[in-house]
Amino acid sequence: MNDIFVLIEHRQGVIRDITFELLAFGRNLANKNNAKLTAIIFADNSKKIIDKIKTQADKITVIENPIFKDFNAESYQIALAEIIKKENPFITLIGHTAFGMDLCSSLATELKIPFTTDCLDVEINGKKLSVTRQMYDGKLNVKLQLQENDSYLVSLRAGTFPAEDGNLNAEIEKIESPISAEPDYRKFIEYIEVVAGEVDITKSDVVIGIGRGIKEKDNLDIIDEFADAIGGVVGCSRPIVDAEWLPKDRQIGSSGKTIKPKLYIAIGISGAFQHVMGMKSADTIIAINKDPNAPIFNEADYGIVDDLFKVIPVLKNKILEAKA
To answer: What is the pLDDT of residue 1?
Structure first.
């Protein structure tokens, strides 16, 4: 079998967490199928990146050029397409992130290869590739078989696979960049850092997440009192931000922030995959929802099926009694 490729995602010189998840999954996939794992790095200076992933792949292909200091999907597409055409890997794995979503569709179209997004699993059977995806807001997992081909492109959901240490010693190959300048029609300009709000939900050990189940803005007072009692901060799913009940910097999920607290309590949140992507790495997850079939219970370590307006006051009082 041809190689399995993993594209390394980094931002301002820092490797993104999804990369280590992809590399761990790619190694397991390669081992099961007698294949080799190759990590692809586009960067202006690759030394620090190589040092962090050298044990994670059989081979590291490095393309260094100043134009790859910052991500530009057009530059990546032009360069990566040339490498895939030349090397013809069996499968190329890319994170289903803003980075991957910007790049993958047009790359697959140019290469004319089968492509599927936001996968939870990948299986290889000979020259056939099967993937597992979710449907109906995460209520159903389906296994799909892609049209048989020599090469495939797949984006994998962040937070689905555990990042694991490797014990390999990668061969380093440096190749010339197929391009030397960004395309005129799309250039990277600058990063604009989001102004930090009064609460940084990514730094707290305890996060209380709220969804549409709290029904109205006035009920935020109940949640704030509970958060104060337990020593946590309040985050939310997207509908709360859309309703302007909380600011954007409190949003948890694929279009918000990714958090890894010691404790996450999901209150009135159904558990759509976009939200789960942002919180499933919490050490302990507790879900409170009156719908026993809510997808959030699939991620929870503990669940309470009941009306949150009955549960939260009782929990708050028990916490205050314990503290006293």
So the answer is: 59
Beta 37-43 vs 4-7: how paired, if at all? parallel
- Return d(Cα 322, Cα 172) in angstroms, integer: 57
Which pTM does this prediction carry?
Answer: 0.80
pLDDT single digits (tens) 67-115: 999 999 999 999 999 999 999 999 999 999 889 999 999 999 999 999 9
Q: Percent of the chain beyond pLDDT 90?
A: 79
Cα–Cα distance for residue pair 102/105, rounded to 1 Å = 7
Average pLDDT, the chain: 92
Fold entry, domain 206-323: Rossmann fold (3.40.50)
User: Domain map of the chain by residue range?
Assistant: 4-175, 206-323
**Secondary structure (3-state) at 27:** helix
Residue (of 300, 278, 277) closest to 289 by Cα position: 300
Topology of domain 4-175, CATH: Rossmann fold (3.40.50)
Average pLDDT over residues 46-67: 96
The radius of gyration computed from the CA coordinates of the chain, to the nearest angstrom, equals: 22
CA neighbor of 238 nearest in space, from 220, 224, 253: 253
Q: Count of residues for the chain?
A: 324
Q: With contact defined as beta carbons under 8 Å apart, do 77 and 106 qualify?
A: yes
Concatenate the DSSP letters of all residues of 36-89 into one string: -EEEEEEES--HHHHHHHTTS-SEEEEEE-GGGSS--HHHHHHHHHHHHHHH--
The pair of structure tokens assigned to 291 is: 């719908």
| Whether the Cβ atoms of residue 60 and residue 171 lie closer than 8 Å to each other | yes
HSE value, Cβ hemisphere, 13 Å, CA-based, for 265: 22
Kindly state the greatest CA–CA separation across the chain: 68
